[in-house]
C-alpha cells in the first residue's frame, strides 16, 4: 500500500514538472516580431547632398519603427561598388530596397535579382527604364534644369553663351538637368557655349573650368548640374578674375553659404531630405503590399540671395548644426 502511495505521488510530481516545464519553455522561446529592414543604397556618401538624403531616410525609419541602413560608395563613379552593395542587401534579405542608381542600365540585372528574391525596389533621385520598379521618388530634373536656363535669361543679355558642367556621362539625372537647361536657355534667347563632364566633383570642375578659360571660349554664365561642380567652377573663375553668374543644382549647405557670401548666384534646390524620407516611406508601404503612385515628385525651386537665409536655417535644423 505504501509502495502504491509513493508511486502515485511520483506520477503526480512528474506530471506537474512536465506541465510547468512546458509552460516555462513556451515563455522563454516567445520572440518579438523582427523589425522590418529597409536597405537604402545611394550613389555616394561623400557630399552634403547624400548626407541629407541619409538624414531623411533615417528620420523615416525612426518615425515608422523600421531598421534603415544607408550605404554608398566613396564616389559616384564607383558603379561596381554600388552594385556590390545592392547584391549584399539582397543576400541579407531586406524587406525592401531604395536605390539611387549611378548607372541605371548597369544596375538592371541586380534589380532583377531583387525581384527574384521578392524584394520590392523603389528608385530614388535617379529613375531607370525598368518596368518592375514599384515607384520613383525624386525631382523633376528636366524642369529643374529648365528653371536654371530661365534664370540666366533674367541675368544676362540675349545672344550670350552659357557653359554647362555636368555629372558623369550616362547618368540620366545629369542628362535631364543639362537638357532642361538647354531648353530654358533657348527659350530665353541664349546659347550653349560647351557641355563638359566633371563627374559631380569639385576638384575636377576646377580643372575643367580652367581648361575652358584657357581655350578662350566666350561665355556669360556657368550652369553646373550639381553644387559641387558649381563651387569648383567658382574657384577657377575667381583665380582667372572672371565674374559671371554661376548656378548650381541641389541646394547644398556649401552652396547656400556661397550664395550668402555673394559668390554663387543661385542653386536649383530639390529636397534631398524628402527624397530620403519619402523613399523609405514608400519602401515600407511596398513591403506591406500597399498601393503606391508610380511617381512621387519632391519638387524644385530657385534659391538665391532673396530666400537663402530661410533655406539655410531649414538645412541647419535638418543636419542638427
Q: If you had to describe this structure to a student in words, what would you say it looks like?
A:
By secondary structure, the protein is α/β, with parallel strands linked by helices. The chain has helices at residues 2-29, 48-64, 79-91, 104-116, 141-155, 172-187, 202-214, 227-239, 253-260, 272-287, 308-319, and strands at 37-41, 67-71, 96-99, 121-124, 135-138, 161-166, 191-197, 221-224, 246-249, 266-269, 295-297, 301-303. The chain has a 6-stranded parallel beta sheet, with helices on both faces. A 6-stranded mixed beta sheet has the order 7-6-8-9-10-12, with helices on both faces. The protein is elongated, with a radius of gyration of 27 Å. Residues 12-27 have low confidence and may be disordered.
Short description:
By secondary structure, this protein is α/β, with parallel strands linked by helices. It has 11 helices and 12 strands.
Amino acid at each position: 500500500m505504501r509502495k502504491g502511495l509513493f508511486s502515485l505521488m511520483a506520477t503526480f510530481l512528474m506530471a506537474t514538472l512536465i506541465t510547468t516545464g512546458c509552460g516555462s519553455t513556451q515563455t522563454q522561446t516567445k520572440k518579438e516580431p523582427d523589425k522590418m529592414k529597409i536597405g537604402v543604397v545611394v550613389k555616394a556618401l561623400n557630399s552634403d547632398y547624400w548626407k541629407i538624403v541619409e538624414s531623411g531616410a533615417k528620420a523615416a525609419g525612426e518615425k515608422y519603427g523600421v531598421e534603415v541602413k544607408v550605404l554608398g560608395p566613396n564616389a559616384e563613379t564607383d558603379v561596381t561598388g554600388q552594385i556590390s552593395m545592392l547584391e549584399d542587401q539582397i543576400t541579407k534579405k531586406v524587406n525592401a530596397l531604395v536605390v539611387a542608381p549611378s548607372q541605371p542600365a548597369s544596375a538592371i540585372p541586380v534589380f532583377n535579382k531583387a525581384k527574384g528574391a521578392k524584394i520590392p525596389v523603389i528608385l530614388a533621385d535617379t529613375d531607370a527604364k525598368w518596368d518592375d520598379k514599384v515607384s520613383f521618388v525624386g525631382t523633376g530634373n528636366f524642369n529643374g534644369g529648365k528653371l536654371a536656363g530661365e534664370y540666366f535669361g533674367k541675368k544676362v543679355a540675349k545672344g550670350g553663351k552659357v557653359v554647362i558642367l555636368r555629372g558623369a556621362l550616362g547618368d540620366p539625372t545629369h542628362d535631364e538637368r543639362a537638357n532642361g537647361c538647354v531648353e530654358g536657355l533657348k527659350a530665353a534667347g541664349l546659347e550653349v557655349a560647351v557641355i563638359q563632364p566633371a563627374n559631380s566633383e569639385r576638384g575636377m570642375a576646377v580643372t575643367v573650368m580652367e581648361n575652358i578659360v584657357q581655350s578662350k571660349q566666350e561665355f556669360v554664365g556657368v550652369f553646373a548640374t550639381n553644387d559641387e561642380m558649381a563651387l569648383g567652377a567658382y574657384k577657377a573663375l575667381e583665380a582667372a578674375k572672371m565674374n559671371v553668374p554661376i548656378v548650381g543644382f541641389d541646394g547644398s549647405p556649401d552652396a547656400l553659404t556661397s550664395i550668402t557670401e555673394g559668390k554663387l548666384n543661385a542653386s536649383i534646390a530639390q529636397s534631398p531630405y524628402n527624397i530620403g524620407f519619402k523613399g523609405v516611406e514608400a519602401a515600407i508601404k511596398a513591403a506591406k503590399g500597399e498601393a503606391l503612385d508610380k511617381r512621387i515628385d519632391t519638387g524644385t525651386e530657385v534659391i538665391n540671395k532673396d530666400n537663402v537665409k530661410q533655406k539655410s536655417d531649414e538645412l541647419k535644423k535638418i543636419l542638427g548644426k
